[in-house]
Each structure stands twice: as C-alpha cells, then as structure tokens.
Amino acid sequence: MRRYTIYFLTAFMFVIAAVAGTSYRVGADERISELELTAYTTLPAETVTILSEAYEKESHVRVNFVPLPAKDLIQKTADDAVSDPTVVDTVDVILADSAVLNSLAERQLLISHASETNDAVKNNFKDKHDRWIGVWYDPIIFCTNKDFLGKLKEIPDTWTELATYRNVRIGITDFLVADAASNLMLQMISNFGDAQTYQILRGLHPKVVQYTKFLSNPVRQAGMGETDISIAVESETLRYMQEGYPLKIIYPADGTAYLLTGAGLTTKNSPKSNEAKKFTDWLLSDNAQLALQSNGFYFISTNPNSLAYKSFAGKNLVLFPNAPNFTEKQRQEFLERWVKHVRFRD
Predict the structure, then answer these.
(1) Domains of the chain and CATH, by start
(2) d(Cα 346, Cα 344) in Å, to the nearest integer?
(3) Higher model confidence: residue 88 or residue 330?
(4) DSSP characters over 273-307
(5) How is 316-335 classified by DSSP, letter by letter?
(6) Range from 9-13, 179-183, 210-214 carrying the lowest mean pLDDT
(7) d(C-alpha 208, C-alpha 72), whole Å
(8) What is the pTM of this model?
(9) Which of 132, 154, 179, 230 has its CA 20 to 30 A from that of 96?
(10) Helix, strand, or coil (residue 133)
(11) Nearest partner of 65 among 85, 42, 33, judged by Cα
C-alpha cells in the first residue's frame, strides 16, 4: 500500500517567487497595455481574472476572458469563424477543458501551433496535430483524514479496495451536479468497463455519508472528521491542506480520472496571432502557476520542464490512459443507470 503526502507547495512558491521577480518589470505596472486579446473560456471568472492580471503585469498584453458554458463557447467560436474580424471582435484564444477543445478541433476551428515549450508536453496531454495543448490537470484522489489513516494497518489505495473496505465513511460529489464528478464515472467506464465500474460504485454507495453538490465539501468533511476518506479533486484537497486541515492524499494505484485544461488558437488570420501564441506558451510557465497558487488554486502543470512539475511530490500518480469517447446520449444513459441501479436502488 502506498501513501503520499504533499510537502512541495511552500518551498515551491518561495523558489518561484524568486524566478518571477526577475520576469516582472518593476516600475512599469502603470503602462497602458499595448495589445488586447479575446479569450473564450469554460473556467470560473475568478480563475481567469488571476491569469489575466498576472499576464498583463508581465507582458503588458491584456487578455479579456469571456466565460461561457461549453455549448455556447463552441457555438460562438463557430460563429466567429465566419465573421468579419474588422467588424466583429472575434476570439483569439480558447482556454477550456479537453473535451471542448477536442470538439473545436474536430470542427476545424483551431489552428496548429507547435513551439519549443509545448513540444515537451506528453502526447496524452495534447492534440496529436498540435491544435490544442494541455496546460494543467486536476486528478481525482483519495482525501484521507489523518486520524483515521493513523489507525489503519492497511491503506486502501485502489478503487476495488476502497469499495470493499469495511467500517469506512466516504464523501463524494454527486455525479449529476459537477463535471469533475461525472467525468470520474465516465473515465472509470472507459478504463474498467461498465460492469466493473458499477460494481465499484455499488460497493461505495452504502458507505457514502452524503452526495454533496460542491467539489469542496467532501474535502471539508474529511478535514472535519465527518468522513474518513473522501473522493475528491486534488486542487481542493491541497487548498484545505494549506489552510491547516489534517489531511493526507492517497493516489489510486490502479489509476484515476483527471480533468485536463488546455489552450487552443482559433483559425482567424489575425495580426494578434503571434501574441496569442505567446500567451498559450505562457500558460505552461511557472509564472502562471505562481499566480494561481498564490490565490489558492493548485493544479499540476503538464510542462515537465517547469519547476512546478519538478516539485510535484506525486511522481507515482497513475492516470487512466483511455479518455471517454461517448456521445451525449451515452453519457446521459450511464448517469441514469447510476441513479436507478446504484443511488436509488431499492
């Protein structure tokens, strides 16, 4: 059994602060931005505001983010592709989850962009034609209360072991209310098959204290001792650990799901295209990670050359190799099957 503890964050931020200090141009903060980019995103406004402010401070290029639901983002990008850029302010950059980027790439709405920076990123984190590049990811982990962990002779570090473990209280987010939660089930089906996946979920169900509505609640429950182990996103777990909650992270040894965030460039032939490329490369930098972590957002960089990646303690993290490739109808059917045969099973 393996257990992993995250110690890198404080040291990492001190190191990166020194690096970032050489990149930010002191005394130039009052300069007017020389250029503005427009970016559509599925990320929360709070997250992209942090990135926009940090990039403008460093490069004096303002990135105007437009948060949109996935379907609206895809439609607006398609509309922009046939619009006159001299009349309509069209999009330059897309920052979204990999499913959205894949959909845009399939519709030929993104252009290929290869650079020395994104060339180092592993193939499973980017489009094979370089039409989008993953910039960070957020895995699902077992978030464990330290007191509970200290009482165990053996630690459940696989999905099957957790499903069959006795006398354990489990916290998890409702699959119907959060993309990261539903993505977990769909990635499990892609990698374990539907029969094994539903067997695991049926084993977990009697131990679930509550199917919560927000990704942060299972982490809080584990930190407060209301659950023993919570199935949660790592970013929220790290945030609570930084706030002093008694938590430890276990990475599932048989693999886990993750939400990959990436960036792509639109097909518009614009004089801003070079600046847009520079911005997508910057998203892979340590300065981008510093901006996020300084504001309580802890993601794993996909750039193996970054200090953020090299300082990451979970080197043995196993990610599911097969990404879900289901239609919307299939996705809905899987969720309905979970509701009927697991959550509300007689």
Answers:
(1) 8-137+258-310 (3.40.190.10), 139-256+318-343 (3.40.190.10)
(2) 6
(3) 330
(4) HHHHHHHHHHTTSHHHHHHHHTTT---EES-TTSH
(5) T--B-SSPP---HHHHHHHH
(6) 9-13
(7) 35
(8) 0.88
(9) 230
(10) strand
(11) 42
